Amino acid sequence: MRAIKLLLLLLFVSGIVLFLSYEKIVSDVLLPQYIDWAYKIDKKGQQEGTALSADQLILATEIGIKHPEKVRLVYIDEIPFPRDNYALKVLGEALGFIGEGIVNNAQAFGYSIYIRNGYPLDTPKLAHELVHVLQIERSSLDSIIRQHISDLATYGYDNAPLEVEAFKANNAYKEE
Question: Does the N-terminal or the C-terminal CB of the chain have fewer CB atoms within 10 Å?
Answer without folding.
Answer: C
